Amino acid sequence: PEAITVAELANRMTERVGDVVKALMQNGVMATQNQTIDADTAELIIEEFGHTVTRVSDADVEQVIEQVEDNPEDLKDRAPIITVMGHVDHGKTSLLDAIRNAKVTQGEAGGITQHIGAYQVQTEGGTTLTFLDTPGHAAFTSMRSRGAQVTDIVILVVAADDAVMPQTIEAINHAKAAEVPMIVAINKCDKPDANPTKVRTDLLQHEVVVEEMSGDVQDVEVSAKSGKGLDELLEAIALQSEILELKANPDRAAQGAVIEAKLDVGRGPVATVLVQNGTLRQGDIFVVGEQWGKVRAMENDQGARVKEAGPSVPVEVLGLNGTPEAGDVLNVVSTEAQAREIAEYRQQVAKDKRAAAGAATTLEALMQKA
Ligand code: GDP
Ligand code: MG
């Protein structure tokens, strides 16, 4: 059952709170502005004030956000989305940097600066790969808890001079729970005390059997420092990607996931969105979690303005009315009214949930005292 505070109800009707409190009183309901009234009472009051009632429900939201299955003939190949995971200091950031810089055209001395928490590279074989930076971790975890998926392949980075550590095990569990295939990158192989064999045998204890041990998990010896094995790693990813046969429909309203979001002093709320299906275009109206917006501008991973972004493409999106959270799902809708309504509905649901949790805590506290 939905509920609304008296103040919020007054706000939505653009009526004075005092008048609403009075109207409630006349109907035998005593409530102050911060108190919650049920949907039926709210409806009664709305009608009394001569407004029409439009109740948004989960069903309405689902209807607006069309979840139609794509026709198989509309599906096109898309780039795999790769998340790098592993224990702290095992070289996740270094490896991502090394891959990016190795693939940057000559002449850009010192490599390129990273603009957003994701980037795309092309392998020698011509496959495009989308990498999520380590902050992608947060999105990965929060999306998984909501049943969504932002990753196709996990690169498990294990330092050859340190072997399997607690966060390595965590990453393995994540990948297994999400049923995402893993590729093991045995890093720091340039080091004199590197022991790749220990990494492989350690992994056995966690039911990760790499190819070198006659298993089916690809493993590649790399060094983010010297660049050794990077091409092999990219080829391993391309191979894994081929097996997965990843496809999406570029010709539909976009759906994506927020990788990271922040409130920028100059530009307002900014979100890095990974498009998962459809094509996101400048001018598109969307809802994203409890926020909504209209795409004012988009920048790609190189910091260049783009007018559209298709499946597996990460873009920075401007034009949001609020700051969403990592892991929030973005859906393009037809009208601003729909977008606003869905966002407000979700905000209300979230608020009610918090209020209910708060009430439960208070009740618990009272019971304990008694
Ligand atoms: P992260 O915490 O997993 O992101 O690890 P970083 O990329 O920040 O690397 C941690 C440290 O290991 C840094 O001092 C890196 O310079 C170093 N490092 C990373 N990769 C290599 C490598 O392949 N060889 C060597 N010798 N050092 C590395
Ligand atoms: Mg790092």
From TrEMBL:
Residues 77-245 form the Tr-type G domain. Its main location: cytoplasm. Keywords: Cytoplasm, GTP-binding, Initiation factor, Nucleotide-binding, Protein biosynthesis. Coiled coil: none annotated. GO terms for cellular component: cytosol. It is found in: Cytoplasm. It comes from the Bacteria. GO terms for molecular function: GTP binding; GTPase activity; translation initiation factor activity. The keyword Hydrolase does not apply. The keyword GTP-binding applies. GTP binds at residues 86-93, 133-137, 187-190. Belongs to the TRAFAC class translation factor GTPase superfamily. Classic translation factor GTPase family. IF-2 subfamily. One of the essential components for the initiation of protein synthesis. Protects formylmethionyl-tRNA from spontaneous hydrolysis and promotes its binding to the 30S ribosomal subunits. Also involved in the hydrolysis of GTP during the formation of the 70S ribosomal complex. This is Translation initiation factor IF-2. The chain holds residues 256 to 625 of 835 of the full protein.
